[in-house]
């Protein structure tokens, strides 16, 4: 499954969002949420997170950068299950980390979903679009 697109769900008063319809089948059996880079929340299907964990386990314990990254990444992780209305709760610590307010932007980012505060996403995107348009060297092999 590849997650694609941009969606704008609202955060309800209990800290839940309704999963975008196109993501529901892949995420129906459960999700793992954790801190993402640029202060968003990464959301993985349980299956994808298990595969990611296998890779994480191979990181050298002797690398301080690997240890630091793993601690931040895994200490914020939370397994959640969608309810019958396809709502999933975003834990309070992750809502605070990402500065989430009522208006959210949810994007498909390939193997994961990202949840952003809408204002933070708009700011990020406007900053990145100029450099994306001005790319003069190959960043992703064979694509651009």
If you consult CATH, what is the topology? Chemotaxis protein chec
Compressed to H and E, one letter per element, the order equals EEHEEHHEEHEEH
Class of secondary structure makeup: alpha+beta
State which percent range the strand residues make up: 15-25%
Radius of gyration: 16 Å
Average predicted local confidence, pLDDT: 91
Main beta sheet, described? 6 strands, antiparallel
Please count the beta strands (DSSP E, at least 2 residues each): 8
Q: Uncertain segments of ≥5 residues (pLDDT<50)?
A: none
Description:
35% of the residues lie in helices and 23% in strands. With 144 residues, it is α+β, with helices and mostly antiparallel strands. It has a single domain, classed as Transcriptional regulator MraZ domain (Chemotaxis protein chec, 3-Layer(aba) Sandwich), CATH 3.40.1550. The strands form two sheets. A six-stranded antiparallel sheet has the order 1-7-8-4-3-5. Strands 2-6 form a two-stranded antiparallel ribbon. The two termini are 23 Å apart.
Write the layout of secondary structure elements.
Blueprint (H helix, E strand, L loop, with lengths): L5 E2 L8 E3 L5 H4 L3 E5 L5 E5 H12 L6 H12 L2 E3 L6 E3 L2 H6 L6 E6 L2 E6 H16 L11
Antiparallel strand pairs: 1-7, 2-6, 3-4, 3-5, 4-8, 7-8
Keywords:
144 residues; alpha+beta; Chemotaxis protein chec; 6-stranded antiparallel β-sheet; two-stranded antiparallel sheet; 8 strands
Could you give a short description of this structure?
With about 140 residues, this protein is an alpha+beta fold.
């Amino acid at each position: 499954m590849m997650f694609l697109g941009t969606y704008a769900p609202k955060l309800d008063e209990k800290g839940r969002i309704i999963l975008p319809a196109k993501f529901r089948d892949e995420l129906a059996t459960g999700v793992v949420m954790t801190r993402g880079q640029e202060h968003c929340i990464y959301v993985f299907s349980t299956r994808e997170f298990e595969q990611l964990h296998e890779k994480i386990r191979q990181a050298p314990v002797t690398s301080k950068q690997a240890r630091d990254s793993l601690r931040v990444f895994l200490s914020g992780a939370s397994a959640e299950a969608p309810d019958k209305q396809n709502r999933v709760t975003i834990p309070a610590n992750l809502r605070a980390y990402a500065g989430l307010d009522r208006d959210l932007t949810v994007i498909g980012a390939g193997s994961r979903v990202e949840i952003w505060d809408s204002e933070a996403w708009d700011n990020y995107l406007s900053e990145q679009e100029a450099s994306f348009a001005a790319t003069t060297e190959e960043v992703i092999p064979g694509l651009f």
